[in-house]
Specification:
With 349 residues, the protein is an alpha+beta fold. The chain has 15 helices and six strands. The protein folds into two domains: 10-163, Reverse transcriptase/Diguanylate cyclase domain (Alpha-Beta Plaits), CATH 3.30.70.270; 179-343, Hypothetical protein af1432. The chain has helices at 2-13, 23-33, 51-58, 60-75, 101-116, 141-178, 180-199, 204-216, 226-229, 237-243, 246-255, 261-269, 290-306, 316-326, 333-343; strands spanning 41-48, 83-88, 91-96, 119-120, 123-124, 127-134. Strand 4 and strand 5 (123-124) form a beta hairpin. The longest helix is centred in the middle third of the chain and has 38 residues, at 141-178. The chain starts with a helix and ends in a 6-residue tail after the last helix.
Length: 349
């Protein structure tokens, strides 16, 4: 009974994943420490960069490992009297009694230095921090907390963007390591998209965007089980439902990075059909972005002629016949014709 009470007491004040104090304990402790004898009293707010992206792309187990690495860096950098708590999600807070802003900055510097030595898989550990200091009794401690939070978010705007961009590169590399066929396919689709856009007189900037979109169109497959990706037989209904999630996963990954936000829309729509029977949103005709319509043709042609998870690889002529047959149903008929006549140099009979 005594043991159970101790266990319940521990769980009541600690975060289960990291072992740090939780929000409940932090709030109680902040009230206790908010006294004249502890001035200057500094609050430091920390936020783990890229946690949601890691969870979406690699799964929550890797996200949990990232949080544990952050915890280790913070614990090994703080002093005995500092109070460290996880507020929830990706947010951490440190109460630093009798600590000036300069001294708090030195503690944060130590955390950053230790975090820089940590990795989760191939991903660097990155934390954005902000801090504020209560110098006299008249100041409201909650206003100090708000200042620390605002200071942290100013840092996070840049730091998190940089981390997300690096994480997207890692996701692409991880997907290609997982499935070499996907790398070759994406490179070929990228080149076909560039060729189609060139023949459609896109400007240089838009050609670069469609080339990049072609390269990243299947990035969402990082969230699909490897056994489904590499299955040589026809997918079951449940497996097909799982596979159809990849445009939305890709969209979430890319839309988190400002430089890829426009491309994210093309990736989301590349499995839509001209007749409105595609996925995930059932868009029809010109409601599908022209870039996504280009990717759809390039993706399908390459899949038919170079690799098939199951079924026979088609000859170029057979694939052309298939694109013609599906024109006005699966594919934009205008782009299909441009692809066959101007990119492949074949007649539209």
């Amino acid at each position: 009974m005594i043991f159970q009470n101790k266990k319940n007491s521990y769980l009541g004040f600690h975060d289960q994943l990291t072992g740090l104090y939780n929000r409940r304990f932090y709030e109680e402790e902040l009230k206790r420490l908010d006294t004249k004898s502890n001035l200057p009293l500094t609050i430091a707010m920390g936020d783990v960069n890229g946690l949601k992206l890691v969870n979406d792309s690699f799964g929550h187990a890797m996200g949990d490992e990232l949080l544990r690495k952050v915890t280790k860096a913070i614990e090994n950098s703080c002093r005995a009297d500092d109070i460290i708590a996880r507020l929830g999600g990706d947010e951490f807070v440190i109460i630093l009694p009798k600590t000036t802003g300069f001294e708090a900055k030195m503690v944060i510097k130590r955390i950053w230095e230790r975090a820089a030595k940590e990795k989760v898989s191939s991903l660097n550990v990155s934390i954005s921090f902000g801090y504020a200091t209560k110098m006299n009794e008249k100041e409201n401690i909650q206003e100090i907390f708000k200042k620390a939070e605002d200071h942290m978010y100013k840092h996070k705007v840049y730091e998190s963007s940089s981390t997300r961009s690096t994480t997207v590169d890692l996701i692409i590399n991880t997907l290609y390591e997982k499935n070499n066929r996907e790398m070759l396919h994406s490179n070929r689709v990228s080149k076909l998209c560039e060729d189609i856009a060139t023949k459609m007189n896109f400007d240089k900037d838009d050609i670069n965007k469609i080339r990049t979109a072609g390269l990243m169109h299947d990035i969402g497959k990082i969230g699909i089980t490897e056994s489904i990706l590499n299955k040589s037989q026809k997918l079951t209904n449940d497996e097909w439902t799982e596979m159809k999630r990849h445009p939305e996963i890709g969209y979430r990954i890319l839309s988190s990075v400002h430089e890829f936000s426009e491309i994210a829309d093309y990736v989301l729509e590349h499995q839509e059909r001209w007749d409105g029977k595609g996925y995930p949103r059932g868009l029809k005709g010109a409601k599908i972005s022209i870039q996504a319509r280009i990717i759809a043709i390039a993706d399908s042609f390459d899949a038919m002629t170079t690799h098939r998870a199951y079924g026979t690889i088609l000859s170029e002529e057979e694939a052309i016949d298939e694109i013609k047959r599906c024109s006005s149903a699966q594919f934009d008929p205008t782009i299909a014709r441009i692809f066959i006549e101007k990119v492949l140099g074949k007649e539209w009979k």
